[in-house]
Amino acid sequence: MISGGISCMENTITSKRKAYSAVEKAALIAAYKASGLSKKEWCQENAIGLSTLQRWLQHEKSRTSRNRYKTGFLSSRLRHNDQPASKYKSANAKLP
After folding, report:
1. What are the start-end ranges of the H helices in the chain?
2. How far apart are CA 77 and CA 80, in angstroms?
3. How far apart are CA 56 and CA 38, in angstroms?
4. What is the pLDDT along the chain (96 residues), one digit of tens a residue?
5. Residue 36: left (phi > 0), alpha (psi -120 to 50), or beta?
6. Angle of helix 50-68 versus helix 22-35 axis, rounded to 10
7. CA dihedral (41, 42, 48, 50) positive or negative
8. 3-class SS at 38?
């Protein structure tokens, strides 16, 4: 024990990883992109780990590429006033 009743373990500084919300991450990514700095320079100026920024950018890239290739399939369920296509005998019949 050190004088004053504080142990050595309590006196050491521990760093905890900051948790960023999705909104914070998006704002930081936008700030990085607008800065014109390299990743390394921007991270040093903003006290963010380079690997953290790289992970965020990779996640953003994969998320946007997934959204780009999504297809817009419509539901096959009929609404109450819709009629099944089999009602129309001719292939050229107009659907409502």
Report:
1. 8-11, 22-35, 39-46, 50-68
2. 10
3. 15
4. 455 555 545 555 566 778 999 999 999 999 999 999 999 999 999 999 999 999 999 999 988 877 766 655 555 555 555 555 555 555 555 655
5. left
6. 100
7. negative
8. coil
